[in-house]
From TrEMBL, chain A:
<dbReference type="InterPro" id="IPR036866">
    <property type="entry name" value="RibonucZ/Hydroxyglut_hydro"/>
</dbReference>
<protein>
    <recommendedName>
        <fullName>Integrator complex subunit 11</fullName>
    </recommendedName>
</protein>
<keyword id="KW-0963">Cytoplasm</keyword>
<dbReference type="GO" id="GO:0005634">
    <property type="term" value="C:nucleus"/>
</dbReference>
<feature type="domain" description="Metallo-beta-lactamase">
    <location>
        <begin position="16"/>
        <end position="210"/>
    </location>
</feature>
<dbReference type="InterPro" id="IPR050698">
    <property type="entry name" value="MBL"/>
</dbReference>
<dbReference type="InterPro" id="IPR048662">
    <property type="entry name" value="IntS11_C"/>
</dbReference>
<dbReference type="Pfam" id="PF07521">
    <property type="entry name" value="RMMBL"/>
</dbReference>
<comment type="similarity">
    <text>Belongs to the metallo-beta-lactamase superfamily. RNA-metabolizing metallo-beta-lactamase-like family. INTS11 subfamily.</text>
</comment>
Automatic annotation (TrEMBL), chain B:
<dbReference type="InterPro" id="IPR027074">
    <property type="entry name" value="Integrator_9su"/>
</dbReference>
<keyword id="KW-0539">Nucleus</keyword>
<feature type="compositionally biased region" description="Low complexity">
    <location>
        <begin position="554"/>
        <end position="570"/>
    </location>
</feature>
<dbReference type="GO" id="GO:0032039">
    <property type="term" value="C:integrator complex"/>
</dbReference>
<dbReference type="GO" id="GO:0034472">
    <property type="term" value="P:snRNA 3'-end processing"/>
</dbReference>
<dbReference type="Pfam" id="PF21382">
    <property type="entry name" value="IntS9_C"/>
</dbReference>
<dbReference type="Pfam" id="PF10996">
    <property type="entry name" value="Beta-Casp"/>
</dbReference>
<keyword id="KW-0963">Cytoplasm</keyword>
<feature type="region of interest" description="Disordered">
    <location>
        <begin position="551"/>
        <end position="570"/>
    </location>
</feature>
Length: 595, 645
């Protein structure tokens, strides 16, 4: 089965919920199982009825691979395993397995308790789902079954994010999930070896952007925060508990230390300590610098950043507060926003993308008044800043990854159609490989040349190497092997002919030709043979010619001289059927010599 | 395949395997037994040790020997920087090594001796915990040996020439001329910088010739057995393995099954002692001593069993009403070792891993540190340590040989007080020899060795389950020779190769096949014919491409430069049918064939062409005195009536 088939159930020409079906070598693999944060109805989850309209789904999917803990990559997993009924293997890295259930539970609470949604998975379902997960480590080669192998590579992006290499037989695919190619304050850059997959499935969130340097954005961010607190303003930074929050904390912590600032910084979420603890314990997944210094000082033990208490909201004077959730759609960050928004000296910094319908989305689009369900209207006089700290690869990074792993085809997901077009063009031009960008529900078929494993006789290879190395070096010269191809129990081998006869116990029938040349050459036969050998050596340069008494052999062609000292000699030339070319050539040579 | 053995210490192994034209070193253990022949190096000056009398062998006047030997507690010791016994360097040229594979941190201490100033150009592979904890062990050792009070002393050499006149046990020192002083810190740093980190079950490509995979061995954090695999051969190296349940990830046995060659090393050094019982005894001895007002000294390495000791002992003392007794860990690397153990979530047992998901540290010692119960310091004279040192207490510190490190000072200090106790847990040194320079000893000494490596019955069970085709092991583990007294050993149904330091042994079956890849295009062109049931064959001429030792067979375009000088071979399976041959010759225009049938074949005469065709069961011989045209006609005719592929 030389085709690889890909069908996005999500992330096909959109940034929403990643869920991609991959079929290769008779195996079906689901890459990510995300939910869409912008919908409250059934569009939130991937359309599993695409896979099988009714009946068990488990028999249709060989395994599910989750790239990282973001909900747009794992949010539908409990739904799939506990409500749709998938019971097959699920793979993710250890940090993802540790952190994903916390985010899933948070999201569940918001959906069920605040929005009153029904038909949602329960806390117990999340626990049961995570129990079924097999945790993998980086570079570990995991055999899902006898033919399907997967391997995780470091992806940066968030703690525990991984890219996955997937192989069936001689075909392989790399799926990136979300990744970034530049190290940040707490994570390293994505890395992959030259694994030359048949297909690279890459995210393309920033397909057209070449982002300004990280340093500039950081300086900008610190400057804004500093200016605001200097004037006595309050800074609100809505974040999600895990991910950017830690990066921004490290950034502020080091800045406060360096500038010796006294203004309080608070991290306002129940999860703070817990979240930071995950980073402390999975420190091997962070960047080089943090790993090197953690014994002396764990970067996630913050000196300047203190836990927040609700009563601080009305405290006078400057402060900086990190609060969840990140899109200002509920909870503490929204409460703080309502209190602080009407004052000009205050500021809110949105460090990431906001889904339509959220307060975050509204104010980023310039809304000066925000109305709430209870008809409460909040005037927005505070400064609103957007600063992208989300860690995705930009166009340059994507091109770099392609260069690293040298795929034979590229497929773009997790991006906007127009931007994808641009990148597709660039990839096809620059790398001269095909690039695909299927929409959701659209199947993309990629034909790959297959290679069939074969056992090759070392004797055959060594004989070839000897012949090849005996010739003057010429890089253009083709190397050729001749042998017998055997097919047994569906296994192929290429053997030397005698080896094959020995191994399988058949007696080869040998056809031999012998012709005689008469030569008038008085003297001992040995002398005649020596003369002939000298002549042959001149004519047959590069061939192995040996002599033993009156017998000469030119590789496998035998020449024997017979006759009394004073009479005519009989020269017998003998060769097997397959040496006809050489045998007849030598015979011709000897015939012309004696005339 | 050939296997060289470079270490005489089966618990600190070092082998070199030549496999697929590569030289692969398996472990590079450093035997430290030699240090027991040296005087202790106290971390702070000791008047007792400094004032020991010189020793001179009777009837010998050798000025070169002056000051090299001292008499202490009725034994003779060498007064010099202690020396170690690295792997043999005469049998294998270290500059020719391609790869070094390390199984765990107790088996890598000789690394700088192999890789530094030897011309070594290869790769070194180990897991992340092996590298980190190995670094702690090595740095601790280097700091103690170089930082000790008496380290100004030069290297004593003369005594090595005079072994025959020295008293036991020095007289029986094994090959002291090959002993070496520890490497300089710079060489150590360079050697460690060479190590490439691998994860469990990560397939490492070794120069395209084979894959090397580290699989969990269950012995300590990051400990690994190695599986070497080419397309047709599998070698398993099992070193330092444990089937007990402790803090590391459990042993992965499945990966080791069915190897062509199984190399077994580093079994337990104390087969008579059950580690669980020893741990229980230790807790009891410690509690009794503490209750009596004495302190407990545990000479240990800075990682490994230490973590289990901290966990079990603290819990036991809590239960015994001794929760207020402080625990001290003294080591130049104590802080790093304790911190590291708690970030290695991916390398610990499932139970410990579950704690990380909460998230809580996998080991309780972090909580003990936070609670002020466990204190750690770099050295004895650290202010932080000496300021709040109070007794009775439990002190964990090195070195288990009692020849250097803080333990030397503490034994000197406590030796005369019978209330104190020293408990030996590390299995590397005979405890009585370790204590020899401190006699007479009033403090109690207990021997509770905890070695979780396989014992003989566990190893025999493992070998039976793994079913290797061939087993290689050090002579210590092999069956005793005929007439020798019986002792526990490893038995195996498969052939056993016995290894001894300095010897090379051939092993492993030779396989004549390499893995290649056939292009689909070429595969589609060949049409194999049935040779017999279940076997089909066809001649094949293919363009060969070898890149990084990966063999590819593709379609050979006709007439390509350097193309086949010989046509693809044809395999004739049986003699031609003679009647068919005569008819075929007639079609070729050779019509006067006369057939003469004999007992063992037929002769076909072609008198007009002066030619005879002798057809036998396994050979057809054509004696052709006619011209080339006749011969070609004969070839075509024979080909036409002969079964072949
Ligand atoms: Zn993401």
């Amino acid at each position: 089965m030389p085709d690889i088939k890909i069908t996005p159930l999500g992330a096909g020409q959109d940034v929403g919920r990643s869920c991609i079906l991959l079929s290769m070598g008779g195996k079906n693999i689901m890459l990510d199982c995300g939910m869409h944060m912008g919908y409250n109805d059934e569009r939130r989850f991937p359309d599993f009825s695409y896979i099988v309209s009714e009946g068990p789904i488990t028999s249709q999917i060989d395994c599910v691979i989750i790239s990282h803990f973001h909900l747009d990559h794992c949010g539908a997993l409990p739904y799939m395993s506990e409500m749709v009924g998938y019971t097959g293997p699920i793979y993710m890295t250890h940090p993802t397995k540790a952190i994903a259930p916390i985010l899933l539970e948070d999201m569940r609470k918001v959906a069920v308790e605040r929005k009153g949604e029904s038909n949602f998975f329960t806390s117990q379902m999340i626990k049961d789902c995570i129990k079924k997960v097999t945790a993998v480590t980086l570079h570990q080669s995991v055999m899902v079954d006898n033919e399907l192998e997967i391997k995780a590579y470091y992806a940066g992006h968030v703690l525990g994010a991984a890219m996955f290499w997937i192989r069936v037989g001689s075909q392989s695919v790399v799926y990136t999930g979300d990744y970034n190619m530049t190290p940040d304050r707490h994570l390293g850059a994505a890395w992959i070896d030259k694994c030359r997959p048949d297909l690279l499935i890459t995210e393309s969130t920033y397909a057209t952007t070449i982002r300004d340097s990280k340093r500039c954005r950081e300086r900008d961010f610190l400057k804004k925060v500093h200016e605001c607190v200097e004037k006595g303003g309050k800074v609100l930074i809505p974040v999600f508990a895990l991910g950017r929050a830690q990066e921004l904390c490290i950034l502020l912590e080091t800045y406060w230390e360096r500038m010796n600032l006294k203004c309080p910084v608070y991290f306002a979420l129940g999860l703070t300590e817990k979240a930071n603890n995950y980073y402390k314990m999975f420190i091997t997944w962070t960047n080089q610098k943090i790993r090197k210094t953690f014994v002396q000082r764990n970067m996630f033990d913050f000196k300047h950043i203190k836990p927040f208490d609700k009563s601080y909201i009305d405290n006078p004077g400057a402060m900086v507060v990190f609060a969840t959730p990140g899109m200002l759609h509920a909870g503490l960050s929204l409460n703080i926003f309502k209190k602080w928004a009407p004052y000009e000296q205050n500021m809110v910094i949105m460090p990431g993308f906001c889904v339509q319908g959220t307060v975050g989305h509204k104010i980023l689009n310039g809304a000066k008044k925000v109305e709430f369900e209870n008809r409460q209207v909040v005037e927005v006089k505070m400064a609103v800043e957007y600063m992208s700290f989300s860690a995705h690869a930009d166009a340059k990074g994507i091109m770099q990854l392609i260069q690293y792993c040298e795929p034979k085809n590229v497929l773009l997901v997790h991006g906007e159609a127009q931007k994808m077009e641009f990148l597709k063009d660039k990839i096809e031009k620059e790398f001269k490989i095909n690039c695909y960008m299927p929409a959701n529900g659209e199947t993309c078929t990629i034909n790959t040349p297959t290679k069939i494993p074969i056992d090759v006789s070392l004797r055959l290879l060594k004989a070839e190497a000897v012949r090849y190395n005996a010739q003057p070096p010429d890089p253009k010269r083709r190397r050729v092997v001749n042998g017998i191809l055997c097919v047994r129990d569906n296994r192929l081998s290429l053997l030397d002919i005698d080896e094959m006869c020995d191994e399988i116990g058949i007696n080869r029938h040998i056809i031999r030709f012998t012709s005689t040349v008469r030569f008038e050459d008085p003297g001992p036969a040995v002398k005649t043979a020596e003369k002939l050998k000298t002549l042959l050596s001149e004519k047959l340069e590069g061939w192995t010619i040996t002599i033993s008494e009156a017998n000469i052999s030119v590789e496998s062609v035998l020449i024997k001289v017979e006759g009394d000292d004073d009479s005519t000699k009989n020269i017998y030339v003998s060769w097997t059927n397959q040496d006809e070319d050489l045998g007849s050539y030598i015979l011709g040579l000897l015939q012309s010599m004696v005339q | 395949m050939k296997l060289y053995c470079l270490s005489s210490d089966a618990a600190k192994p070092c082998f070199v395997l030549s496999f697929k034209e590569l030289l692969i070193m398996l472990d590079c253990g450093l035997s430290a037994h030699s240090v027991l022949n040296f005087l202790p190096l106290p971390p702070v000056p000791s008047t007792r040790l400094a004032s020991l009398p010189n020793y001179t062998p009777p009837h010998l006047n050798d000025p070169l020997l002056e000051g090299e030997l001292k008499e202490c507690c009725g034994r003779v010791f060498v007064d010099s920087i202690p020396e170690f016994c690295p792997p043999l360097d005469k049998v294998v040229d270290f500059s020719q090594l391609d790869v070094i594979l390390i199984s765990n941190y107790t088996c890598m201490m000789a690394l700088p001796f192999i890789t530094e100033d030897t011309g070594f150009k290869g790769q070194v592979y180990a897991t992340e915990p092996t590298l980190q904890i190995g670094r702690f062990y090595l740095e601790e050792l280097a700091e103690w040996v170089s930082g000790a009070a008496g380290s100004a002393a030069g290297a004593a050499r003369r005594w090595k020439e005079l072994l025959h006149v020295l008293p036991a046990p020095l007289a029986h020192a094994a090959r002291p001329r090959s002993w070496r002083r520890l490497f300089a810190p710079a060489a150590l740093a360079r050697a460690l910088a060479r190590v490439r980190v691998v994860g469990y079950d990560e397939r490492v490509d070794v120069y395209g010739a084979l894959d090397a995979t580290a699989v969990s061995s269950g012995f300590c954090l990051g400990s690994a057995n190695w599986v070497l695999r080419s397309a047709h051969e599998k070698v398993a190296y099992v070193s330092g393995s444990s089937t007990l349940t402790t803090h590391p990830r459990p042993i992965n046995q499945a990966a080791l099954r069915g190897a062509d060659l199984l190399v077994l090393a580093a079994l337990t050094q104390t087969p008579a002692h059950n580690p669980d019982h020893m741990l229980g005894d230790l807790c009891v001895h410690a509690a009794v001593t503490l209750r009596g007002g004495g302190s407990v000294l545990l000479p240990v390495y800075p990682s490994g069993v230490l973590y289990d000791l901290l966990e079990c002992l603290s819990a036991h003392l809590d239960g015994a009403g001794l929760a207020s007794v402080p625990l001290y860990v003294l080591s130049p690397v104590a802080d790093s070792s304790l911190a590291y153990s708690n970030i290695l979530a991916e390398w610990v047992s499932v139970g410990k891993q579950a704690r990380v998901y909460l998230p809580e540290e996998p080991f309780p010692h972090a909580a003990l540190v936070r609670a002020g119960r466990l204190k750690h310091a770099r050295a004895l004279h650290d202010d932080a340590f000496s300021a709040d040192f109070r007794q009775p207490c439990v002190v964990f510190c090195g070195h288990p040989s009692l020849r250097f490190g803080a333990a030397v000072h503490l034994v000197e200090l406590w030796a005369s007080n019978p209330a104190h106790a020293i408990i030996f847990t590390e299995p590397d040194f005979p405890y009585l020899d370790a204590l020899a320079p401190f006699q007479p000893l009033a403090m109690k000494a207990f021997h509770c060795p905890i070695d979780t490596s396989l014992n003989y019955s566990q190893a025999n069970k493992l070998v039976r389950e793994l079913r290797p085709r061939e087993l290689a092991l050090p002579e210590q583990y092999a069956a005793p020779g005929p007439g020798a007294p019986p002792r526990p050993h490893i038995a195996c149904d498969a052939p056993v190769v016995v290894l001894r330091r300095g010897l090379a042994r051939a092993c492993g079956a030779r396989r004549g096949l390499a893995r290649g890849w056939l292009s689909a295009a070429l595969a589609a062109r060949v049409a194999p014919r049935d040779v017999r049931a279940g076997l089909r064959a066809a001649p094949l001429a293919a363009a060969l491409r070898v890149r990084d030792r990966r063999v590819s067979l593709d379609d050979a375009p006709p007439g390509a430069p350097g193309a086949a000088r010989r046509p693809p071979p044809r395999l004739e399976l049986a003699a031609p049918d003679v009647d068919a041959l005569v008819r075929a010759l007639a079609r070729e225009g050779v019509a006067d064939a006369r057939v003469e049938r004999g007992a063992d074949g037929c002769i076909v005469h072609l008198p007009r062409h002066d030619t005879l065709v002798h057809v036998e069961r396994h050979a057809t011989h054509v004696f052709c005195e006619g011209d080339a045209g006749v011969r070609q006609a004969l070839r075509r005719a024979i080909a036409a009536c002969m079964p072949h592929v």
